[in-house]
Amino acid sequence: MTERIVVVGAALLDGGRLLAARRSAPPELAGRWELPGGKVEPGETPEQALERELREELGVDAEVVERVPGEWPLKAPYILHVWTVRLRPGSAEPAPLEDHDALRRLAPDEIWDVDWLDQDVAAVREVVARLRSTEAC
Ligand SMILES: Nc1nc2c([nH]c(=O)n2[C@H]2C[C@H](O)[C@@H](COP(=O)(O)OP(=O)(O)OP(=O)(O)O)O2)c(=O)[nH]1
């Protein structure tokens, strides 16, 4: 069986805005925008991995809420799973501490203003569809 390594990405939603992060490395990904997160390490649940990655990369105390249905292939052997996330009360505001050099909080009509990684576009589209349906409730 082919090995698959899950990369967890955060749809960090705040006041109807989605947090996007601009990668600073490696060179082939630098300057493109992504959902912050990273690889699930052996022995971790996806939720633990995502909370750890967000603490390391953004300095926040985040709570994973729920999985966005779907999975998106990245460069083999990676596969992207996305979870909605919110900040716990008292958390610091996100800052680009590691792996990123800029952050943006995108309103629904700004989502496509940034140059998302090609492989993230379908995942972001799914996040936006859910954001819109939540707003409609
Ligand atoms: N975090 C994240 N990684 C992504 C996304 N889209 C995408 O292709 N990737 C790729 C970049 C990397 O090749 C791989 C894992 O990302 P990473 O570098 O953030 O993972 P990590 O923090 O665990 O990595 P490491 O530096 O500890 O090795 O997934 C995305 O939306 N979020």
UniProtKB/TrEMBL annotation:
Cofactor needs: Mg(2+)
InterPro entries per record: MutT-like, Nudix_hydrolase, NUDIX_hydrolase-like_dom_sf, NUDIX_hydrolase_CS, NUDIX_hydrolase_dom
Molecular-function annotations in GO: 8-oxo-7,8-dihydrodeoxyguanosine triphosphate pyrophosphatase activity; 8-oxo-7,8-dihydroguanosine triphosphate pyrophosphatase activity; 8-oxo-dGDP phosphatase activity; 8-oxo-GDP phosphatase activity; metal ion binding
Annotated EC: 3.6.1.55
Keywords from the named record: DNA damage, DNA repair, DNA replication, Hydrolase, Magnesium, Metal-binding, Mutator protein
Gene3D superfamilies in the cross-refs: Nucleoside Triphosphate Pyrophosphohydrolase
Keyword Cell inner membrane in record: no
Keyword DNA damage among UniProt keywords: yes
Biological process, per Gene Ontology: DNA repair; DNA replication
Catalytic activity: 8-oxo-dGTP + H2O = 8-oxo-dGMP + diphosphate + H(+)
Domain of life: Bacteria
Pfam families attached to this UniProt entry: NUDIX
Residues in Nudix hydrolase domain copies: 3-133
Family per record: Belongs to the Nudix hydrolase family.
Protein's UniProt name: 8-oxo-dGTP diphosphatase
